[in-house]
Design brief:
The structure is a homodimer of 111-residue chains. The first copy, chain A, is α+β, with helices and mostly antiparallel strands and 111 residues long. Chain A has 7 helices and 3 strands.
């Protein structure tokens, strides 16, 4: 995802934003918090409008950052499912805060 | 910013993500929480690497969403400064949660 400049390396908000500062990423996390475990196709269906390669890229980044774990539930053919790691579950307060703000102040119309 | 699909209109997380689901936006909010009022040039300096037109676009979106207010501190030539609205200040828990996660779990290296 985004590069972090030297100065922003020292800012905790910037460090978080470099991991979750992306709309699709936040929705992937929401789904994983909600469902515990999600298959690729389930995420694809839930995140209406996301391109499969975008979803795939976001999941790879989250895996590389240690936030999401990929697990195979079938070997032939290989089929993966995704879940939060311990570090990923610690993002709960972020998703909760977004939920609460969105409920009261989020836009009600598409724009 | 991003379009919200019909289904996601009902999800508070998606509604929030449509406003703040962007790395630069989160850093703008961080600066406004930290400083109270920021001038364009101050934001530009703080958000190392952001293009002026990107910053301008993010601020316009935040203003349109009712999160940020633009105020003129000079008329000739017109010079603006930015501050959070009441609705924007309610995003405090989001920024705080990002701060806390970043402090403990955020990446320490640029990537």
């Amino acid at each position: 995802m985004a590069m972090i400049s030297k100065r922003n390396l020292h800012c905790p908000v910037a460090r978080s934003a470099s991991v979750v500062g992306d709309r699709w990423t936040l929705l992937i996390l929401r789904d994983l918090f909600q469902s515990g475990v999600c298959r690729f196709q389930e995420l694809l269906r839930s995140l209406e409008g996301i391109a499969p390669n975008t979803l795939s890229a976001r999941l790879k980044t989250l895996e590389a950052k240690g936030v999401v774990e990929r697990r195979f539930y079938e070997q032939h053919p290989p089929r993966a499912e995704y879940l939060l790691t311990e570090k990923g579950r610690k993002l709960g307060p972020v998703i909760r805060a977004l939920y609460e703000w969105g409920e009261k102040h989020g836009p009600k119309t598409s724009a």
